[in-house]
Write a structure and sequence with these properties.
about 475 residues, 4-stranded mixed sheet, alpha/beta
Length: about 475
């Protein structure tokens, strides 16, 4: 089976099509292929008899993998020799806010789910404990090439290790497309608008609409849709211009116009303004939505969380003009779990974290379609997920890792809220865009002055080869 390796940072490699081999651990470092600590790692000593129990709280905002993670936690609770019990809490879209409240009231969890979007902020606020002292030669060999500045490493301190990455795709109902006389998924935004309208016209009497997104959280909705459209179109997907080192939301505003048109056409599922991602998935599984954009977690969702018999698939997102000028960004490829700086049981937290990063758990996580493996030794072992729809999400020639963009908080409304308000109520889009550029670049300048972020413009940046 074909293998292809992509650049990640300066020297990191990532497999595109996962090798279909299994068996021995391929890292050559004697690591165990079980969920327990790898041989040679810095494991917590074997528990003495009657060792006092330790309870760890683990918070995550992932729901797509809840069943599997719960199963692995139960196994850990039953088999670990250190009398550690882990309690899982699955949060909703207000995860970051809940974490803020927990830390401010000294009620923080011991272990947190980290993502590329929240890790820099959590580090800045002092929420996370560096794990450098736990890292051994074996761990560094396994994960070292995926330790990235600005992703999971800050000022030489490592806070998390990689597990998987997510591709972004258009998810569409093939039967609804056929019913509306549409042969292929849209290649351009105008085709997406037209297709959404046709699907709605053909199915509205049955409660079927052409398009939907989880607009209860505009940032979540746009970051799983417009981000993909822009990166394939040759623009950084979160509004940052890598060539100039400044924020420029002009490309973003181009895409927003098409979303506004779908809203004006009545092609978006009614009530989308308050729709969360799981209710959206339930509607899609019931055959009521023609298409939406989301992550490579969706095939696993429709296998386990919302089993469905509909005929669906994943495809590359449309671009602004139908031309692919960049690569689709693989997101959240460097982080997974982290330890709370407030935890009174950091060694126990590491014992659990080490268990979760065991080869078998990471391999199974990929094979279940919960995320696409990025750790090289796991890539070598893992089989392609045998899950309906997964073939459309596997990493291919149009996927790659993009450089990290600065994470700043402007005064006033963020870009997602400002643009979503325009979709619903209209306004002067040029003025909205100019205002966002001004406020985001002001925040960026202040962050640079304080030494919170480092910005290096790259006039030669090539969106077709984002890692050079």
């Amino acid at each position: 089976m074909q293998k292809k390796w992509l650049g990640l940072g300066m020297s990191v490699i990532l497999a595109t099509v996962i090798a279909g081999c299994s068996g021995n651990d391929g890292n050559g470092n004697g690591a165990s292929a079980t969920n327990g600590p790898s041989e040679g790692t810095k494991a917590t000593p074997t528990a003495e008899a009657n060792k006092p129990p330790v309870t760890l709280k683990y918070w995550t905002d992932d729901r797509h993998d809840q069943e599997y993670i719960n199963e692995m936690i139960n196994k850990f609770n039953e088999t670990n020799e250190d009398n550690i019990k882990v309690e899982l809490t699955v949060m909703s879209e207000n995860y970051a806010q809940s974490v803020d409240i927990a830390f401010s009231s000294n009620q923080a969890p011991d272990v947190l789910r980290l993502k590329s979007g929240n890790t820099p902020g959590f580090v800045k606020k002092g929420y996370l404990e560096p794990i450098n002292d736990f890292l051994t030669d074996d761990i560094n060999t396994k994960f070292g090439k995926l330790m990235l500045d600005g992703v999971n490493r800050f000022d030489d301190k490592v806070y998390s290790l990689a597990n998987n990455g997510n591709t972004l795709r258009l998810v569409y109902n093939k039967d609804l497309f056929a019913k509306a006389g549409i042969e292929n998924p849209p290649a351009s935004l105008q085709e997406m608008v037209d297709s959404a309208k046709k699907i709605t016209e053909a199915g509205k009497s049955e409660g079927i609409y052409g398009f939907a997104l989880n607009f209860k959280s505009p940032k979540s909705a746009f970051d799983r849709s417009i981000r993909e459209i822009l990166s394939l179109s040759g623009h950084q997907g979160l509004g940052f211009d890598l060539k100039t080192g400044q924020f420029d939301f002009a490309p973003y505003s181009q895409v927003i116009e098409y979303f506004k048109q779908m809203y004006a056409d009545g092609s978006i599922l009614p009530g989308a303004e308050s729709l969360d991602i799981d209710p959206l998935r339930a509607q899609f599984a019931a055959g009521k939505i023609g298409m939406y954009l989301s992550f490579s977690t969706e095939p696993g969702v429709y296998k386990d969380q919302f089993p469905t018999e509909i005929n669906w698939a994943g495809a590359l997102a449309p671009t602004i003009d139908g031309q692919i000028k960049g690569t689709s960004e693989i997101v959240s490829a460097g982080t997974w779990l982290g330890i709370s700086a407030q935890s009174a049981n950091k060694e126990a937290a590491w014992t659990f974290m080490q268990y979760m990063y065991g080869d078998e758990i990471l391999k199974t996580y990929h094979e279940k379609g919960l995320g696409i493996a990025v750790v090289p030794t796991i890539v070598e072992q893992a089989k392609n997920p045998d899950i309906n729809g997964m073939e459309g999400f596997l990493v291919g020639e149009h996927d790659s890792i993009w450089p990290v963009s600065p994470n700043v908080t402007p005064e006033g409304a963020g870009y997602a809220d400002a643009f979503f308000k325009y979709v619903l109520a209209g306004g002067d889009l040029q003025a909205i865009t100019t205002d966002l550029n001004t406020r985001y670049n002001d925040a960026l300048s202040k962050a640079v002055e304080k030494g919170e972020v480092v910005v290096t413009p790259n006039p030669a940046f090539d969106p077709a080869k984002p890692q050079g």
